[in-house]
Design a protein that fits this description.
Protein name: DUF4352 domain-containing protein
Number of helices: 2
Helix content: 10-25%
CATH class of the largest domain: Mainly Beta
Strand content: 35-45%
Number of strands: 14
Oligomer: single chain
Structural class: alpha+beta
Shape: globular
CATH architecture of the largest domain: Sandwich
Number of domains: 2
Keywords: Signal
Radius of gyration: 25 Å
């Protein structure tokens, strides 16, 4: 009888342990679901069509579905919260057709594995980023060199140069006749309260470095 009682007691302990482990697993799953639910769902189910064929940037969170200020996206590269957004613009500079498809100001918290990259630009763990998605087309008959955002300045007085671009998608360099390049340019800011971005393009140069036409400047309002 004692042996039987001992076996029953051990079985009860094992069942109790299993039940506790299952409960803990379910609790953890519920916490994960709650954390995921706390992030506002992206407004769009699909990326805008101008992103077609453009790969996701390896060092910045994919914000293609982030369209509504206050929305948040989270992926393996970190978390981004959209603060403000601006309308697109189309600008002509000599043989260059520049289409700014979107402008965004978001607060970015990179994943810890990317912190080393961002230490080249800032010591902060989270920071505002001003970002443009652009398309550059050479409408002329000869190769050109052109930078779509040689200088970016906010109405708060912050100024960033193309060397400060965190996306590094190589939109500059030589562009062949009829070629279109598209991609992101983005700059870390100190202040996330900017209401206007002023962008100055580079001059348009031929492949030998001779100036074909001057650059241009345009403003984008953020709301």
């Amino acid at each position: 009888m004692k042996r039987t009682a001992m076996i029953i007691g051990l079985a009860a302990l094992i069942l109790t342990g299993c039940s506790w482990e299952l409960a803990e697993t379910e609790r953890a799953q519920n916490v994960n679901r709650a954390e995921a639910a706390a992030l506002p769902a992206p407004e769009w189910k699909e990326a805008p069509p101008y992103y077609e064929g453009h790969p996701v940037n390896p060092q910045v969170t994919d914000d293609r579905l982030l369209r509504q200020p206050g929305g948040t996206v989270l992926d393996e590269r970190g978390e981004a919260e959209l603060l403000k957004a601006g309308n697109g613009k189309r600008i002509t500079a000599g043989p260059v057709d520049l289409a700014v498809r979107e402008a965004k100001l978001f607060r970015y918290y990179p994943d810890e594995e990317l912190i080393g990259f961002y230490q080249m630009f800032t010591d902060e763990m989270g920071f505002p980023v001003a970002k443009l998605f652009v398309e550059v087309t050479n409408t002329g008959n000869h190769p050109i060199r052109f930078e779509p955002a040689a200088v970016l300045e906010t109405d708060d007085g912050e100024k960033k140069l193309r060397e400060d671009d965190i996306y590094l998608e190589g939109l500059g360099g030589e562009i062949r006749p009829g070629e279109t390049r598209k991609g992101n340019v983005g700059f870390i800011l100190e202040d996330g309260n900017a209401e206007r971005l002023t962008v100055r393009t580079s001059d348009v140069m031929d492949k030998s470095g001779e100036k074909l036409t001057g650059g241009t400047e345009f403003d984008i309002r953020l709301e």
